[in-house]
TrEMBL record:
CDD domains: cinA. It comes from Candidatus Neomicrothrix parvicella RN1. Residues 4-171 form the MoaB/Mog domain. HAMAP family: CinA_B (MF_00226_B). InterPro entries: CinA, CinA-like_C, CinA_C, CinA_KH, Competence-induced_CinA, MoaB/Mog-like_dom_sf, MoaB/Mog_dom. Pfam families: CinA, CinA_KH, MoCF_biosynth. Belongs to the CinA family. This is CinA-like protein.
Length: 413
């Protein structure tokens, strides 16, 4: 089954709102084994919405149209569905009662234009999952089926997860189960990763199952998604597990986690397993590293705190950094040792350098010195990181965490 996604809203075309709904829907369709070859955005114009949906039905078996189900005059998805079906919009008394009750439960007055949301073409049905006042619609047509869902992300996701995806799978007649796993990597470019995995991907092209896809995630690294299809969930999961083990062997230390892991959660888990605590000393990252670490649930078991030593005098007074240039590996190591001493930890991390836009001490923007100290040793490196000021700071955070991760892995080997 081919499923097309149509996002409705002039604000999407003007860039006032980023269309994250379509990307999420596309991901969910892939996870349940449904093809999606087209995604389209269209403004709040009845004729253009009807034309877009008509074109979508000519090339796809089903269409998910997102947005345009509100109560105002520019919410035209219901009218477009009625025109596609050649029917009038009729008010549904049961839905009127449902929407009225929702407002009553919230202690709010219901504006009369909310009754527009209780209208539907005669051949359409309301989606039984309704988290908000905007009900979704299912419209079977001769060419295919249209699902209309709200543009509010959490409402849309509940309808997709609670009804639409399972109904699409039922209509497709394909009982197959889909399993997926994402390996998180850092330290290699997309082209480099493709080169490393090219022989295995050629083998999988012949097999057809599982499949691999690269997903670039900016400062969070590259993702390698494994997707398998089988007659049941257990078999599909087993295929994914076997392939994940194979790829870990091929990629080695490039893989730092799976699925929802990030670099900070991976490093904190490694330190907790060793019984170590962590302190950080930050200059150009200005507390960003500590913030990322503190965002991980349970971080307090490992992370004791951080020192933001931005000015050279603060570095000298709090971290025993020697007087002189501060964009050096020597200073980064002194900061990391100072973090351990001041915060009472076994492991310390430090960043210093030039975030930009101006040069410092003869070093161009993007020059970052970072260091890690741990019971097994210490290490410092200098990197030239890309991007503007914020990107340099973000790259520095994940790079210094990766520096520690790889050294700990080497100690384990």
């Amino acid at each position: 089954m081919n499923v097309e996604v149509v996002a409705v809203g002039t604000e999407l075309l003007l860039g006032q709102i980023v269309d994250t709904n379509s990307s999420w829907i596309g991901e969910q369709l892939a996870l349940v084994g449904l093809n999606s070859h087209f995604q389209t955005k269209v403004g709040d114009n009845l004729g253009r919405i009807v034309d877009t949906l008509s074109r979508a039905l000519e090339r796809s078996d089903a269409v998910i149209v997102c947005g345009g189900l509100g109560p105002t005059q520019d919410d035209l998805t219901r009218e477009a569905l009625a025109e596609l079906a050649g029917e009038q919009l009729d008010e549904d008394e049961t839905m009127i009662d449902t929407i009225t009750a929702m407002f009553g439960e919230r202690g709010r007055r219901m504006p009369m234009n909310n009754l527009n949301q209780a209208r539907k073409p005669a051949s359409a049905e309301f989606i039984p999952v309704q988290p908000g006042t905007a009900p979704g619609l299912v419209l079977p047509l001769q060419k295919g089926v249209v699902y209309a869902v709200p543009g509010v992300p959490w409402e849309m996701k509940e309808m997709l997860s609670g009804y639409v995806l399972s109904d699409l799978s039922r209509r497709s007649g394909d009982p197959a189960a889909i399993a997926s796993r994402t390996l998180r990597t850092w330290g290699e470019s997309e082209s480099g990763l493709d080169e490393l995995l090219a022989p295995r991907m050629a083998e999988l092209d012949q097999l057809g199952n599982p499949t691999l896809a690269f997903l670039a995630s900016g400062v969070e690294g590259l993702k390698v998604r494994i997707t398998a299809k089988a007659a049941d969930t257990a078999t599909a999961t087993s295929i994914v597990d076997d392939e994940a083990d194979r790829l870990r062997t091929l990629l080695g230390p490039l893989v730092f986690g799976t699925d929802h892991d990030n670099m900070e959660s991976a490093v904190l888990a490694m330190l907790e397993a060793r019984g170590h605590t962590l302190g950080v000393a930050e200059s150009l990252t200005g507390g960003l590293l500590g913030s990322r670490l503190a965002s991980v649930p349970g971080a307090s078991a490992v992370f004791r705190g951080g020192i933001v030593a931005y000015h050279p005098e603060v570095k000298q007074q709090l971290l025993d950094v020697p007087v002189g240039p501060v964009v050096t590996e020597t200073v980064a190591l002194a900061m990391a040792r100072g973090a351990c001493a001041r915060l009472g930890t076994e492991v310390g991390l430090a960043t210093t350098g030039v975030a930009g836009p101006d040069a410092l001490e003869g070093h161009s923007p993007g020059t970052v010195c970072m260091a890690a100290v741990w019971p097994g040793g210490e290490a410092a490196i200098t990197l030239k990181l890309p991007g503007g000021r914020q990107q340099v700071r973000e790259f520095a955070c994940i790079s210094v965490l990766d520096l520690l991760r790889r050294r700990l892995m080497t100690d384990d080997a």
